[in-house]
Amino acid sequence: MAEPTLDPIALAPDEVASRLERGEIVLVDVRETKEYDLEHIAGALLMPLSELDAEVFPMLGDRPLVLHCAIGKRSAAAGRMLLKAGHAQVLHMEGGLTAWKAAGLPVEEAAEPEGEEKVSPLFLCPTPGTVLREEFLAPAGLAPAALAGAIGVAVSTVERVLSGERAIDAELSLRLSRYFSTAADFWLQLQVEHDLERTRHALGAAIHDTIRPRAA
Questions:
Q1: Labelling 16: which of 27, 34, 63, 150 has CA 20 to 30 A away?
Q2: pTM above the 0.70 mark?
Q3: Where are the beta strands (DSSP E) in 17-135?
Q4: CA end-to-end span of the chain
Q5: 9-109: which CATH topology?
Q6: Homologous superfamily assigned to 121-210
Q7: How far apart are CA 154 and CA 181, in angstroms?
């Protein structure tokens, strides 16, 4: 009989923030170095999932570990690896950095050296297609055609989402959410966050300069 899968307990971002501020946890970022360098939570340690070896993972004191990634998929996978290897008190942050920012919690961003072009916010807020490809399809070895068949849409629809040519609408969000067992608005929220960042990058300065807030 196969051993039961151990899943790390999920914590909401606001609870993680409170515990981190009180020094009760060790926050570990399992994203890749490039992602961490662009933006990260202050005080988080970097240990990329691609380099994580659960058997030799260091003991970091007696405080619980809270793992996090971009949206919660990699951190959950890393948590299962550590729990299976015998590590205790391993948790992960639900929704990852996307949920952390949606809750209005702060991040540290890459410094902007003088004379160099500013890093585009598009790199800080990936398209839903990028999340779909890197966080869901790649880990499962799932091809676009297989996903399209499973959720009842044309292959071209999935391919256009993956390439960033097609936005996620309400129907597609429901189909993806049903298949991947995510919240119904998960994919729509990713789309909104990306669109806001893209528009802020293109028009934010002009809007700020030309529109004055209405007086109370």
A1: 34
A2: no
A3: 26-29, 39-40, 45-46, 65-68, 90-93, 108-109
A4: 66
A5: Oxidized Rhodanese; domain 1 (3.40.250)
A6: lambda repressor-like DNA-binding domains (1.10.260.40)
A7: 21
